[in-house]
Q: What sequence folds into this?
């Protein structure tokens, strides 16, 4: 599924994500840097976590008329500001269509949802490949014109298969990976290749019901609300930084099958909101928590 | 706080809560029993838990013109139906104002809420006593005209103090107990005196964050939604059958103090909905889960 | 898109939807009818609207061992019960895959969602045809293997085009029609062919913001929550009986474009819940309101 | 109900609310003003309404070490910045306990809720007076130790009674007024005395069901969700800028009485959130819409 336009167009705006120890004058310093170089701020969000004495900022500005050449912005910002304030930062440019790989197993609902959003133009995201450990979802992949690779996982071949998968991702210049009900646990090594760039959807309101069969557990516990959680994948199962959650009311009248059905709608929408926030560069991660600017 | 009317008025309707192994003809048998004795059904709710092959029913009917005398209905139902179908059942009558004891520690928000609902007539519930392990909330108790008993708990005197508390509850003919942020764990023995008649409010979306300081844990985990849970108290801490839950969205911008503030509103409303369902006799408990007829 | 099985399989259960003036003995009469003929009740839901003194009931029972032949159930029920109690009723059988026609204009999100649910097996619904007044969505129709008919509407040709559309629906034995952001108003005559069988999705929380451009109106009014409404189509625009609604929180930070984006997710899920309830035969309509059994 | 401390303590921080035509350099100018005078920013929120080309900002900073004397900050800001950028602005100081008057008629639920929050210390708000057009709620007023004034409204005496009410408000140095289900329409003249300082709670999801008896209308229309809306009062009934809304799910099973009961919980919490945002100085009003910084 290739967009009918050049994926690397002239960037219109720059987005800077920053966090650093809190101190006086941080907002001023950043806004001064942009103003002095003739940038027009489109968005500024900041947050101070008083608990952790940490400052977070997202700022977006127009590049038209900006004095520093686009390819030099990072360098200048680093030298002039970041080092002084001990800032962790990332710089992104609009107009760069992100490239997403989707990992699936047998359940199709999130896959259809994501492919529909991409194909219809709702999302401006490239999907060069779908990877699975089962052949079941080849049909929708083909139907939407996306390459489908099946890697059977036997337990003993995990290391080798992950190596093959990483090669594909690397070759296709994948920016981030989405686990859309992928029923395999990624190795620590795999995760390390895409830090805060692998998004998982878990079918419970974490930290309740981590691991397998959360809808069964929810039924057994008799909860009155079920949830879904989208988070960045870390080496710890279902324990990575949470990006988005949502819930739906259930009752005694709902069987496990009903929970699964209601949960599907949750999973679709929670995962899609997380992906949206990710590609809009609205997310900062610090200390296993996310700051998601609205 | 005593209502200005006789608490034992002529009952207008009977409510029967039933559960038993599922089989054919249960609804028919019950409706026939009521019809034949000239009762008019006001409400009938039923539920079959296919997973557990269990049948649940709530039926309410007018007593005017009902042939069986009120005090004999239980006996007749037991002999004619319950034994045959192996039914667990409870019979209640409208017009009997339930008597609620409130246990508190230092936090006043749920207490004010409940007393306001009773005094304003929103709830038709008697509150003969408030029991606490701290003197802090004596003022609102007095203000609403409710007796306040303070039992300091030292760890070593728990058994004795609970005995004193039970004596009060017994003497005041208390129907059910509400733990409104009561910061003590009741003994198994105490709980056994009021099976499925002690309602607790826990300030998290159980089973996430049981035990102490759930708002702190929620903050640390970085959840995007917090919740509150009302449940019947059992011998296992925060593990009893859930009656009601609700949630509210939070974000990185919310400090622990903000979570506490937002949580207070949740706790109030979740607890009040649970109490409402309880006194309306809408709740059946089976296998640590509730069936709550709407 | 044709299911790989015979669409008319042996029915496993019968579903009866009833409403009538409220009186004593209605539940008993219906359950007796089923029991005497050896049916096993799978579900019974009833509701009395005290305001309107109207009784509503949904009952489903197994047909295996049922004494009355399937094709005679309606007749027997009518003669033995319905006439006596002045009941309005409908009888459905499981195993009959409903046939849905989808009407669209240019917006694809609901269309993709419904086709994905059908193709993946989440829904057991046949979609023999998609009808549009624009050619834009022919591609997804083809991609999912569904016939696509485009009828340009000029204002003057409406009557004729609707006649052509009705012929197609009739020929394809369509059970119900879904308007998935179809930007045409159906004539009273067209609606009369499918009473309570045309489901529309409106992109506001009705009765707020009926008619065109509700997201613009919501922005202008400065609401803090937006909604979507699925309802049966009647001759009055956006005034038919509401089946399902849901909402999402918005803020001053959301532009109209953001409202449209957030609203899309609402529309998808609200419409899909309404379709689910419709094909599960859970909906009764009376006096322009719905009773939706859960 | 008088707080046990001096209501005018030393302010710890200043809060500036600004809106003006959008242009480059606004954030920089404000942050520079604060930094140069040795203020430490505690919070900065900004919003650009692209639709209306309007810039909004809320900034809070510590006054300790701030060079400009507290009583001169407004003047300096006006001269140095506001005139240049054509800013509308308001300046507030922490430590000033706001003084709230409550207007009621007969319904007590919001009144109890607000008084409980004030008395328990959840809110740091003074309530010097409760004004009503009925004597019914004198008891809770007395119980919480608040002066209660009853002004019977006959239609013909409205102008005079409002004059008397305004005199009281004026004498008591009331900062803002809350209409807690006050069943009278304030005159345009009255409203003009407290622009964006009169908060009303309306028991529907506006703009649906304005005016009288919204729960009856909601029942008649058969909506599946009901709401409550808190807004600033303007001369147009129920049409002022919306501060906060929330909703709760209902069903066919809910009678009008049930809607009223569920709605009460909504009204309480929606009104209380609006009051919280107001006294935290988080609200800007422009063009009949609110910007509510979180």
A:
């Amino acid at each position: 599924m290739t967009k009918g336009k050049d994926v690397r167009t002239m960037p219109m705006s720059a987005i800077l994500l920053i966090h650093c120890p809190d101190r006086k004058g941080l907002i001023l310093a950043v806004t001064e840097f942009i103003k002095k170089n003739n940038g027009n701020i489109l968005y500024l969000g900041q947050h101070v976590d008083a608990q952790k004495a940490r400052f977070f900022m997202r700022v977006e500005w127009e590049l038209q008329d900006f004095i520093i050449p686009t390819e030099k912005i990072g360098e200048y910002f680093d030298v002039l500001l970041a080092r002084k304030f001990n800032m962790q930062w990332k710089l992104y440019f609009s107009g760069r269509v992100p490239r997403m790989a989707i990992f699936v197993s047998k359940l199709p609902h999130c896959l259809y949802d994501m492919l529909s959003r991409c194909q219809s133009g709702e999302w401006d995201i490239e999907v060069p490949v779908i990877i699975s450990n089962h052949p079941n979802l080849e049909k929708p992949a083909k139907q939407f014109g996306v390459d489908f690779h099946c890697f059977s996982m036997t337990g003993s071949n995990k290391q080798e298969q992950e190596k093959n998968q990483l090669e594909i991702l690397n070759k296709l210049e994948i920016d981030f990976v989405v686990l859309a009900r992928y029923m395999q646990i990624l190795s620590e090594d795999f995760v390390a290749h895409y830090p805060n760039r692998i998004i998982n959807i878990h079918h419970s309101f974490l930290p309740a019901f981590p691991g397998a069969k959360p809808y069964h557990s929810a039924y057994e516990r008799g909860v009155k609300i079920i949830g879904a959680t989208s988070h960045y994948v870390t080496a710890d199962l279902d324990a990575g930084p949470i990006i988005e959650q949502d819930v739906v009311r259930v009752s005694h009248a709902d069987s496990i099958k009903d929970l699964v059905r209601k949960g599907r709608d949750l999973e679709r929408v929670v995962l899609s909101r997380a992906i949206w926030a990710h590609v809009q560069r609205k997310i900062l991660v610090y200390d296993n928590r996310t700051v998601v600017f609205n």
